[in-house]
Amino acid sequence: MYTKPVIRSIFLCLLLGLIFPVVLRAQTAPEVHAGVDTTSIRIGEQIKLRLTATIPANQFGTTKIGFPVLPDSIEHFEVVSRTNIDTSGDQQLKVLAQTFVLTSFDSGHWEIPPMRFDVQKASNNAVIDTLSTSPVGVDVGTVAVDTTKAFRPIKTVQGAPWRIWDYWMEITGGMLLVLIIIGIIWFIRSRKKVVPEKPTPTVTPYELAMQQLHALKAEQVWQRGDVKMYYTRLTDILRTYFEHQFGIAALEQTTEELLQHIKPVTKLNQQRDKLRQLLSLADLAKFAKMQPTADEHEACMRQTEEILEWTRPKKESENEGVVTQEA
Question: Which residues pair with 313 in a beta bridge?
Answer without folding.
Answer: none
